Amino acid sequence: VEVRSLRVGEGARLREFRLRALDDAPHAYYWSRAAEEAITAAEWERWADTPTADRIMFVAERDDEWFGMAGCSLRGDGTLDATGMWVLPSARGRSLGELLIDAIIAWGRSRGATTMEFAVTETNEVAIALYRRLGFAPTGKRRPLASNPDLTGMFMAKPI
Ligand SMILES: CC(C)(COP(=O)(O)OP(=O)(O)OC[C@H]1O[C@@H](n2cnc3c(N)ncnc32)[C@H](O)[C@@H]1OP(=O)(O)O)[C@@H](O)C(=O)NCCC(=O)NCCS
Description:
Layout: E1 2-5, H1 11-24, H2 33-37, H3 41-45, E2 55-62, E3 65-74, E4 79-87, H4 96-110, E5 115-121, H5 125-133, E6 137-145, E7 148-159
Parallel strand pairs: 4-5
Antiparallel strand pairs: 1-2, 2-3, 3-4, 5-7, 6-7
The chain binds coenzyme A (COA).
Coenzyme A binds next to strand 4, helix 4 and helix 5.
């Protein structure tokens, strides 16, 4: 499995994969499927790797099939906001999640980022355990999910 960045022209394929993630694990994401269905084709295409991009999406791929995804955008203060981590249920437990995070960190460092941050639903024990193992710690900031205000996202971060 190779972790690589999204290429120009793959926005529509990313949209389809992301909607699969939202169907599989709606509790894990801030936005609902309905909200993301409304995102324009041009916005999806903005996740492609280009020299001037302030955001990037990585996919874990084998034989042209995607098994996972995770992305990030770079804030002006040097923080990388990571988003959209998903691994196909059949491919979990094989470190694809960790490889995707490694790819984000490497990209962030090359762009001068100093911190990586994201929100994870407080009840998502598998994801939280993975992030803790990789050195992320809760920042104390929390917010309810727009997709389900009964659930709360907690922010985790680490210096990179
Ligand atoms: C969180 C997620 C991305 C992790 O992906 P992954 O490729 O399985 O990650 P890794 O293989 O690097 O690590 C997974 C850990 O979970 C453990 N695990 C727990 N339940 C598991 C299961 N049902 N299947 C496989 N692994 C499982 C693994 O043993 C592994 O533990 P370790 O870190 O002690 O080795 C994946 O579970 C997922 O897509 N979940 C649904 C969406 C989600 O929660 N996204 C996170 C949003 S913040």
